[in-house]
Amino acid sequence: MNKILVTSLILAVLTLNASAASKIIMEGSTTVLPIAQAAAEVFMDSNENVEVSVRGGGSGVGATSIVEGTCDIANMSRAMKGSEVQKAADRGVIAKAHVVAMDGIAIIVHPSNNVSALTKKQVKDIYTGKISNWKDVGGIDAKIVVISRDTASGTYEAFGALAIKGQKVRSDALTMASNQQIATTVSTTEGAIGYVGLGFLSDKVKAPTIDGVLPSKKSVVTKEFPYARPLFMYTNGNPTGDVKKLLDFIKSAEGQKLVDEQGFVSLK
Amino acid sequence: MRKVLTVLILAVIFCANAFSSQIDMLVNKMIELNLLTPGEAQVIMTETNQDQISLLAAGKVETLPQWIQNLSMKGDLRTRVQTDWAVGAAARTRARVRARLGFDSRIVEGVKVGFGLATGVNKTLGTAIGSDVSDGEPRSTNWTLQNTFSKAPLMLDYGYIEYKPVGYAKMKIGKMKGNPVWNTTDILWDTDLNLDGAALFLTHTLTPELSLFLTPEFITIDESSTDSSDPSLFAIQPGANWKVNDRLSVKAAVAYYAFNIKDKVLDFNAGTNTGATTGLKNSFEALNPSIELTISDLFGYSLGLFSDYVVNNSSGEQNVGYAAGAKFGFAKVGDFGQWQVKYLRRWLETDAFVDAFPDSDSYSGKTNSHGDELVFEIGLTKNASFVLDYYAMNLIKGKTKTSEKSLLQADIVVKF
């Protein structure tokens, strides 16, 4: 009787374990958040026993979280800093980076604008207020209409980090709520300059070269184009189990399609 | 087949101890041969680079000696021109230099040692101090350019052992770097002071936004062969870090200091505490709340508001001090054109705190002084900056027409 009872209990526990959902916590960058959310939804559809929880907070929060063991995957729009990697190592955490996408931002002007090439310094000076006339960058004598994104957007964050090095965008810049709005406004305003994700380039706007490099998927993934950066997901050491399955999915052709759909540059 | 070839080639690279640049070259070659797409190449190069950084930090790169992987070095060099003004006296201008070099190394998991060298003047106690009164003190690492190009001594600035058995606890022992107890200003503790003794650092994370800390320390101030009760300090500081939202964070703590220095004369005292040169009249049981509020994005810049307050309960009068100020600009000046401006109001009564420890530039490190400090820093290039630091100070008690003093320091600081 005792044997039957013990066997039943073991079976019950095993059954419970088998049916229990495993949980993956992703935390960190708000830029990477849309990729993580989209991937999590599709992944959970085909892996019903896995629950993926996605939280924002910023790349710094992600780094802290992976170091302290409170998340399985840290989403980061930058590489971990030396101090963060060292902190992780001190706690026995080997920060393993996984590049999941590239982020690229193109500068756009009106098609009639005769400026076809800009330098990084000129872009920075235009957006921080040092240059206000197209003639100062080889164009006609006309005021530059500067267009930027709202401060809550990931594109604004990326542009701030890559193009103006954390400085403040000039106060007279017009603020738009989306990439599409910027593309539309630039296409209809002769003196305008704006910045958009690569997916919003069309023949209605002109994309000057930056330091001699045209924005393209290839120049972004090779980082030849200056306004490009890899987006990361970090794990503690090499991933295993469901975490590995999720990362493999994000890096797969299907996962990279989601990356493109979110307005980022896929790696495939 | 392509994947197999890729793996084989990469395996060869690692076996041959290739460095990242060589990997980059080979990966680029593989793109040319259509073995890799640019995207795959970017992943390999970036991830390899990051892996190397992580393995190096953990001391697990097989191709490098362990001691190299575990050793880190940093330092800085500062040149300074300082002018002191005092009413009724000629202005005095000095050119000074400070060099510091620090190392730390992880010995085994959880154990580190750190030591640093710095310039200064090795003054012999009991002799005349000489004309350059601030040199030779624990509160200064300046070397004044004088005496027909005389060489500057390089001394042990700090040297300690750190033991971290678990994530929430860390212990330091030795000549520690700075003061383990946190302060928002240097009104009580000069930033050049490296305290001797032991400290325990305890932290507890309540939520991702809120963490608590507790820092007790035992500090040896002096040793005497004829006195069994050597001057010492026990301090304990509970505090909290609170990230209110993405833009606002607050750090606050209260330190309690219990000194064992009554009736003693401390080396390098400033001579302003009651009985400083004959035997201190107070035991200095001081309470020191500190708070710092940081707004990370105000019109695109960072704003910090901070304050230190101290009350020495063992003295019934002239026992209060405070410093309150603000800084605005870039959170850190680390590159060309980045700037920060800071203002600090200082007030430190005669027996508010032990006069051997406050900022040595503030009325020569004396208590019974008050005034204003204004600092402007601008980045010259990456890791190099120009700093102007101005003090306008006077006595609190016993103020006279000639007691007002000011000084201006113009620094170029290069960090590496």
Walk me through what this model shows.
- The complex is a heterodimer of chains A (268) and B (416).
- By secondary structure, chain A is α/β, with parallel strands linked by helices.
- Chain A folds into two domains: 2-102 and 230-261, 3-Layer(aba) Sandwich (D-Maltodextrin-Binding Protein, domain 2), CATH 3.40.190.10; 103-221, D-Maltodextrin-Binding Protein, domain 2, CATH 3.40.190.10.
- Chain A contains ten helices and ten strands.
- Mean pLDDT of chain A is 87; it is low at 12-19.
- Chain B has 416 residues and is mainly β.
- In chain B, strands 1-2-3-5-6-7-8-9-10-11-12-13-14-15-16-17 form a 16-stranded antiparallel barrel.
- In chain B, a hairpin with a 2-residue loop joins strand 2 and strand 3.
- The longest helix of chain B has 20 residues, at 38-57.
- Classes of the chains: A alpha/beta (268), B mainly beta (416).
Supply Rg of chain A. 23 Å
- Gyration radius of chain B (Cα, Å) is 26 Å
CATH architecture annotation of the largest domain in chain B: Beta Barrel
DSSP strand (E) fraction of chain B? over 45%
What are the low-pLDDT stretches of chain A, counting only 5+ consecutive residues below 50? 12-19
Number of domains of chain B: 2
The rounded distance between the terminal residues' Cα atoms of chain B is: 47 Å
CATH architecture of the largest domain in chain A, please? 3-Layer(aba) Sandwich
Secondary structural class of chain B: mainly beta
- The CATH homology group name of the largest domain in chain A: Periplasmic binding protein-like II
Q: So, the CATH homologous superfamily of the largest domain in chain B?
A: Porin
**Number of DSSP helical runs of chain B:** 4
Give the strand order, joined by hyphens, for the main sheet of chain A: 2-1-3-10-4-8-6-7
C-alpha geometry of chain B: globular
Instruction: Determine the CATH topology of the largest domain in chain B.
Output: Porin
Topology, number of strands of chain B: 17
